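Box 3.1. Reading complex inputs
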Amino acid sequence: MAFLEVKNVKKSFGNTEVLKGIDFSLERGQVLSIIGSSGSGKTTLLRVINHLETADEGFATVGKDIVLDASVKKLSEKELREMRLKFGLVFQSFNLFPQYNVKKNLTLAAELRAKEALGKKASKEELAERYSEISDKADALLEKVGLTEKAESYPCELSGGQCQRVAIARALMLEPEILCFDEPTSALDPELTGEVLKVIKSLKSGEHTMIIVTHEMEFAKNVSDKIIFMSEGVIEEEGTPEEIFGNPKSEKLKSFLFKENF
Amino acid sequence: MTFLQITTQLLEGFAYTLTIFGATLACALPLGLLIAFGTMSKFKPLNLVSRGFVWVIRGTPLMLQIIFFSMPNLWLTPLINFVFRSNVDLPIRGTEATLIMVCVAFSINYACYFSEIFRGGIQSIPYGQYEAGMVLGMTKRQIFFRVVLLQVVKRIVPPMSNEIITLVKDTALASTVIMVDLFTVAKMIVNKTVDIWPLFYAGLFYLVFNGLLTVILSRVEKRLDYFKV
């Protein structure tokens, strides 16, 4: 069994069936790109996996853990949080917390979690020790995305590309098993997409499993181990970048690629 | 009456005005937040009750509410006696008790206005902020208090400043039922001295205090200028 297994995910909004039964799998350390035209359901799929939308049907596992089970209707907040934490999600519009500086954006959730894990009885020293570990980790991640000197800046002082790099570092803070990107460069000016794509690419080293919903075909081709082409709520075609771009089989994919190249 | 005597008397009245102002602000802010949660609730009965309550309070004159609350023996005592099948006489009489009831009236009235400002502020925060908190494994509570609240505060400071300044002047409405606040005292001095200027002198008290509040509130606004929402 693969590291991530997603089975028969269905989702409707009102009468519109957005996902009509999605199955796919991914090995640990692999990078999967999901491509397709707007409205094909790729973002919804990502949101369902991250429990930002509730699936009507479907089941998913990461390793041995169940991360999605639509047959269980009432999840407690705690269960939901545990499932969500298997994934990290980088949003199209960054969604950084504007009132916190870059460093605090990274550490906030981790600190709250550490405090919770230690419980009320924890001594100040223990907590301080955990916080300093968290701080070190944040520094390391900021270095990784090349924003060490921006640690004290506020999101409103950063460019879009810098914001998105902070968002990537923030998503990595809680060490998700799988890091998801929802059109990470769609809100950026063309000249800023490069720096973000570079950071994403640098994460591809076998230790990060990633799912990327993207419109950047060139990037998808370069970075992915596997590509899924979605159309009208189904997976129309999937394969390696060579297969998808070099030898597309379905008419829909052919016409999609033709339009993208145009 | 000498100028000093008038000043002293007005200051005594001003102390009561400040009491009504302070008590109202302290009660109406948290109560307003609770009502805001009620009007945003997906739980239908709570939602309807909260919205109905806001409708009644905002839809009737504040002066009427002050009169209503200053006469608890007319409705509160019978109500309590009916509910508990008792026959007690509530000791809500005299200036002190009436002052408290006036504060209750002000608090409820302002809480309703505040609640709408809170609701507007909370609903103006992009849903992406909540989602970002969720995918980082934060609880709803943590998301509200650690992520959303300060952004809401930043957004509502200007409309809140408006309400707070209005409240200072609205305290003069208390003069319908109690004879202690600044405006009442000024009116009484005017009656006694047959001189109109103490009334305008009292106006100066309101003006100076509101000037002070304006400075404080714009400081708060400045303090929150370091980020954008």
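In summary: Chain A has a mean pLDDT of 92.
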